[in-house]
Amino acid sequence: MKKAKFPKDFLWGGAVAATQCEGAWNRDGKGETMLDHCTTGNKEHPRMVTDTIDSRYSYPTHNGCHQYERFEEDIALYEEMGFKTYRLSINWARIYPNGDDLEPNRAGVEHYRKLFECCREHGIEPTVTMTHYDMPWNLCVKYGGWSNRRVIDFFLRYARTLFTEYKGLVTRWLTFNEINFGTVTYGEIVTSGIIPKNRQVVMDDPSAAPEEKSKRFLALHNEFVASAKTVQLGHEIDPKNQIGCMQCGFTYYPLTSKPEDVLAAQHDMEIWNYYCMDVQCKGKYPYWAKRFWEDNGICFDIPKGDLEEIKKGIVDFISFSYYKSDCSTATGSSKQNSGTNFGFPNPNLKQTAWGWGIDPQGLRYLMNEFYARYELPLMIVENGIGEFETKEADGRIHDQNRIHYLRDHILAVRDAIRDGVPVIGYTPWSAIDIVSAGTGEMKKRYGFIYVDADDFGNGSYNRYRKDSFYWYQRVISTNGEDLSDI
Ligand code: BGP
């Protein structure tokens, strides 16, 4: 195996999101969020959004993996693995329970202070997402989520609180998790906080009317303005702050060499990746946006001054998630189902149990695309494989597939570094088993640490080191040089 070329200060770590790991959904003054109203689903049945918390259903975020109360134990395990950084998120509704409150909830503020201090004490630098699928429910119901411009000011109040309270403790921030999901129904719900008319959390609803799409793209526009103002505010409060965008990285290949399939792939790359990245990384909408809006009947106003704000708030770096690649075709319809599935499956790739095409080279391809286009440093803040796993009688978990998946993707990152792409760090999804965002299942496991819990909140929630825990420990201690099996 060739020598790794990871920089000395490379940030190895792991990632989670508050709504998926914390639990304690109604403790210490926390408000309800959109995800707190999403039921457990699976790959055949989409999650549902219910108006009230209905005892007939289970709501996986209400339990997460109990990290709210067990964070000290988890962070000690991360230190044992050698994490340099922990990518986690603050739950917006712990700080501003209704989103439009004038004063923050002190218990929420103090909880995260303890959490960040604990990370620092264990030699781990926090990388913090400001919002990861946690729009306060009140903002969804009362204001229509991000489709209402007033939410920009509520978010800025929240951002100011975070930058001020955690000054010195946190300097690496991500604004909106996977903002680009906002171009389809899934993100319209989980990121933009728009309650779906049929109450189903699906990837994309082909029956969406132009007015609904217009609302969706207006919501995204408001998020862009909020993101740009947040970047400016963060720099003003502490010039040491580094603020990144966070994209779901989509690699699309043409299904065939037919020119119309090549154009379809280009179009998918544009919409899924560059619509948002151009705004956040170049400070302007892509040149093809007008035609895209026209062709799809999308119409919304851009108030005076917004485009100037957007220009002033270019991010410092690009962070992104990467799990899979898909194909595009001008003729076939794409495969969409309950979970986070999209695109046309690539016949050349093996798929995970949830139907995601495993493609390490797609990561290298994407990293080169992103860097060529924006010339900003990259951080891979999510990458991993969801698997069914069982704990053996001796307490061991043999997750060989995860080890192979991560090894091949780390090799792809190393290749991209050798290509000349500057990379800050790599935080696989997920540091520990947590509930899936797409399907709400606990049994779709991603972690280095096994959590004894099922989809419905049963179990001891005790932690067990998987084989990948020991493997990743060695990867980090050799700075990516030793990737061999254990
Ligand atoms: C990303 C989200 C994460 C995470 C991950 C895996 O899109 O940012 O929150 O959940 O995907 O997806 P899933 O949980 O649906 O398997």
Q: Explain this structure to me?
A:
This protein starts with 10 loop residues before the first strand and ends in a 9-residue tail after the last helix. Strand 11, helix 13 and strand 12 (423-426) form a beta-alpha-beta unit. It contains 14 helices and 14 strands. The strands form four sheets. Strands 1-3-4-5-7-9-11-12 form an eight-stranded parallel β-barrel, surrounded by five helices. Helix content is 37%, strand content 13%. It has one domain (11-477): TIM Barrel, CATH 3.20.20.80. The chain is globular and about 60 Å long. The structure holds 6-O-phosphono-beta-D-galactopyranose (BGP). The site of 6-O-phosphono-beta-D-galactopyranose has 16 residues, from loops.
List the helices and strands and how they pair.
Blueprint: E1 11-15, H1 18-21, E2 47-48, H2 67-81, E3 85-89, H3 92-95, H4 106-121, E4 125-131, H5 137-143, H6 150-165, E5 172-176, H7 185-190, E6 200-201, H8 210-237, E7 242-248, E8 251-254, H9 259-282, H10 289-295, H11 306-312, E9 317-321, E10 325-328, H12 360-374, E11 378-382, H13 400-419, E12 423-426, E13 449-451, E14 463-465, H14 467-477
Parallel strand pairs: 1-3, 1-12, 3-4, 4-5, 5-7, 7-9, 8-10, 9-11, 11-12
Antiparallel strand pairs: 2-6, 13-14
Helix pairs in contact: 6-8, 8-11, 12-13
